């Protein structure tokens, strides 16, 4: 990475998540003459929250190194030019400006000359461009005026440069002798479940847009060179960090950059050197826009939070918690002691109340998750920051009819390797196969579902991303084995020699298929192949402190234990959890990540030096079994300690859940998952559509899922309204909800209600959901009958509303339920329009329709192993095996290649829409553990890296 500078530290002018904060803008490094981390230390609040783990930094360094290799530099330049519809390059030239402005100017002139003379394309690395100035007219350009920068330290502002990671210089299509300057950046973004988050891509292209604006303002561009309207991001396309080019129009991004630059200019003009002389006073007078969910990556987070914690204004507690500004006025009475509460969401009121007295609030929801039941597998893992899909270690435990088995822990001393990913799937698949076999023994006709229990969403994301990776490799292998069978040379989509991967063992395929099923299940809110304990706990309790802190399972567990162990001090607990050396989920703390990465690099060093003790990483079967005293032993001990903490938190979370009474709806949720997994088991047994990645399904499949998703969403809302008093309360008080309302008992004989709804009126039939915060569906007299098309509840109070004679209150109605509940005057009720649930005419039963199952492109119950072979036409869209599908696709690719319709024969290059994970034979791969550890630059934060 290039040396850091004030300009580099200020390059987040438009891309940072904090640009809306006046304090962040006012502490621009070019304004105060120091990086924000230096500033935080000088005013007494050194920053650790945004510190980059060494392994994460080394991964970014490794990716940038791969971007600069001749092979990938040529690919990036060619792909960029092709996707912009420009001419095919006659030659690809690479050059490096090393962040020097003069050298950048000279290399741009050379690249322009080559482009117009012989059609060559140049990929230029590390350009230095004059920092863009805000302009009212995009056609104008100007340098940053000296008056905007204070003297002394801030004098560098007028001379500062913006460094762009890369740029492609290509000839224009016409013969005018011009060239295009296409700015770009290299960003080591992780792919989560086959894709990169849109928010990260947006930040990346905003940085490219800043470079484009700076280039537009530069007077050093050669005559005839124009800045292109598009930009390019180099991002990893697979687990080995091999880069690919993403090209996107920058019009909107550049408009936002100009707006932010103008905003920045105003900050410069408002600040004088005298104001910034006393940094503490200067920072204090800047008003912060504080949000505990997004501010953690800002170097001034600790300063701003302490300012709120020590404030004399009690309402600043609401800011500290991250309560939305439009909700705060409704909650002032809670924090100032007047106890006057406005129309605020029930969950927000519970959060503030828990913060004030240090005791978590119960939601009233009984237990519906399946964690801890036979057929579940508990799992924790430690993810490597040095590898996109790297795993340091994993621990699993299966729950049987006899209770939980002992934990089985495995440590991998080659986190990056493909072998490690396959072994993770093998270990998980073995447990899943045993769990499925036990469920079949319990009920051969209708076996129950199996579930994977993990601490949090990031853990699930890592596992599904690995499954996505291995599914792509397996399907590529099927095509290439077909090529070999037909006497063809196996080639990648781009026409390069391919290495045929080993087939997935049956156990590993089971795990991959199960996790891809979970990937599809994310579109359906009632599906639960993977149970996230943090989410399960959050159904039952609302913790105090910032709600974002409850995204950590250990924090939430501590709050749930307040019912038996007494109140906590929210701020002290928040600080304690933040300072903990370990985490409950897959991702590690910076300290733990650094220690493990350092030990791992020493394992590599021992492997490289045969004279050193230790097993190294030469034999995957000896993973994690270093000799006593070796670096491998230290690495194993550190990873095991991390996994031990995660296992302990998971056990404590399960112990808390076991104290929550079961809901009558727990069976309903189990039945819904069982229906879906019956389809998945058919996919798995017939090897048909079980390796289809959800992000790669056909458009017809995704469109057909719309109705399935709608029925799932409606059923989820209905089940929540029945079982969760807090959710039902929020539905009833939401002005956009028509079906649920608050009612107050005015009279018992006759039964008269005041109904706070304009849509529920005389003639409407209502069903009673909750009385004074207690769910009616959980009462002993209510019976549940599971039917093929719906779930039928008997014993609930259902009946029509009628007008009350001579009533002066417009929303007052008489109610005549068939099952009269025991109520008292003043009781607060939550009721729902019966028509939302059912069209039944009677008032004895409430029916909730089963959600539809995603059974498109899946084997039917009547399909058997030989069905497709015997009748291909009938079974083409249900049980056709992957082997046959990929064989046909392999033949089609071969035919297209023979006709010259595939890369590298065609121009522009065809994009591989499958984006499978197999690298061409001999292509460079990234391994961040093979390089000496470098300390991240002081001026770069995790927010800027991500």
Quick structural gist:
With 946 residues, the chain is α+β, with helices and mostly antiparallel strands. The protein has 30 helices and 25 strands. It has three domains: 281 residues, no CATH class; 275 residues, no CATH class; 141 residues, no CATH class.
Structure description:
Residues 138-160, 604-632, 919-946 are annotated as: Disordered. Residues 140-159 have a biased composition (Low complexity). With 946 residues, the protein is α+β, with helices and mostly antiparallel strands. It has 3 domains: 6-276 and 936-945, no CATH class; 376-535 and 582-696, no CATH class; 709-849, no CATH class. It is built from 30 helices and 25 strands. The strands form 5 sheets. Strands 1, 2, 3, 4, 5, 6 and 7 form a 7-stranded mixed beta sheet that branches. Strands 9, 10, 11, 12, 13 and 14 form a 6-stranded mixed beta sheet that branches. It has a 6-stranded antiparallel beta barrel with strand order 16-17-23-22-18-24. Helix 19 packs parallel to helix 23. The model is unreliable at 1-7, 135-159 and 611-628 (pLDDT under 50).
